[in-house]
Protein 1
Amino acid sequence: MIRLPKLPDKTPIKLAITIMPDLDEKLRAYASFYKDFYGNEESVSSLVPAILEAFLEGDREFSRRRKKSGAK
């Protein structure tokens, strides 16, 4: 058996959402903060997947339930 496990599917999935103006304002402010902090500009659309991933990874109850159910 090969040591390296099969790589996960990395095919991007396009997701279209509608957000309220106040959330748009917060995301733009976050992108500005990100630029100030790291020194490089990223679009809101490129930051949103990372923000969602960080949110889901940080949700302990969600992680516990996924582990309990055997989800990846």
Protein 2
Amino acid sequence: MQKYISLFFSVLLFLTACQTEDRPKGVLNEKDMISLLLDIHLTDGSVYQVPQVPDSMYKYSSQKYVALFKRHHTTDAVYKKSLKYYSKQPEKIQDIYSKIEAIIKAKVDSLNKVTAAEAAKAKPAPAGPTPVPTPKSSTPDPSLKPVLKEIK
């Protein structure tokens, strides 16, 4: 009996070790998956800006997701299959999300720069003449002594 148990586990180990690294048919490649996930997360963010009424969320979000899948030339079934495939490989999904995070960070930085530039342009000029700075000390400047002697 011991012999059969060890043979079973040996065959099981052999079969699990011989899995191929190729993507199954119908799974998006990494580049397409990154682009799709990025757009899905951005769409999720825009959907949650709508007031949280269930009917309106379904009404507005379903059309956005349909358009998103059309834009990427895929379906939700392919997306689910791809997500399931990449979720079973932690290194790949972590790499994908680190790239997505970098892209979102770059977009946020770009938006912050544009917003700061627009705020600087929109800043109103000071009204009226500019005030003359007052001297910090009440003693006259030594370089003005000849001028002050002439006035007296």
Protein 3
Amino acid sequence: MSSGSFSVDRELCRGTGLCQAMVPALFGRTDSGYPAADTGELADERSVVLADEVAECCPTGAIEVFRHDPVHE
């Protein structure tokens, strides 16, 4: 099972709210309209996929998603 994390570049973010509109469970917003967190953990594959979809739609490319695939021994 994959997990991951994401980061939001506050310098690139313009506060359009698209991320929060697409997946409010992952991307909350502050009162000023910007993402509530600069980083976040993604506990399962479904969350990673959703975050990837949001990152692809971000108009400024401010969201980056990192996959943490388990190591197979």
